[in-house]
Amino acid sequence: MRENKEIIVESENKKVSNLVESIKKLNLVLIEENKALENYDIDKVRDLFEEKQKLANVYKTLVTTFMNKPKLVEELDLETKEVIKLESLKLNDAVSENSHLIKAKMKANKMLLDAVVNAAKQKKSDESSAYGSQGSMNFGSHNSNALNFNQVL
Fold this sequence. Notes:
A two-stranded antiparallel sheet has the order 1-2. The N and C termini lie far apart (94 Å). Helices cover 78% and strands 4% of the residues. The protein has a single domain (2-122), classed as Methane Monooxygenase Hydroxylase, Chain G, domain 1 (Up-down Bundle). The chain has helices at residues 2-38, 42-68, 70-74, 78-127, and strands at 129-131, 137-139. Helix 1 (2-38) packs antiparallel against helix 2.
């Protein structure tokens, strides 16, 4: 009977070490991805995506295990709890920054796409014909605005 209890304790200790390790690894991947996002290195972001997903799934599974068995957390020594807390705070910061960077990049991409679409609409509008106020056809907008160039330079 004692042997079974030792195996259970060893298994629980392994889960704790796996949790800490998954937090550290996920944090490192997020920090690397954040740097890639800041540098507009989309290829690097793409390369890190699969690893980030795998680590996030492992982390989620381990956290779920501890949430379903709160006694495991209660039995941890203070030092282990502190390590988990500190690593979790670092991870939270990295996740928050990652979310902010991704949202900012998405917003910038949307603004660029909107500008391209509006430019295409304007070009099409400029090239299309329409009826004028006198009932005659106007072909394109052919604005006759004068352009001045400062040739003093």
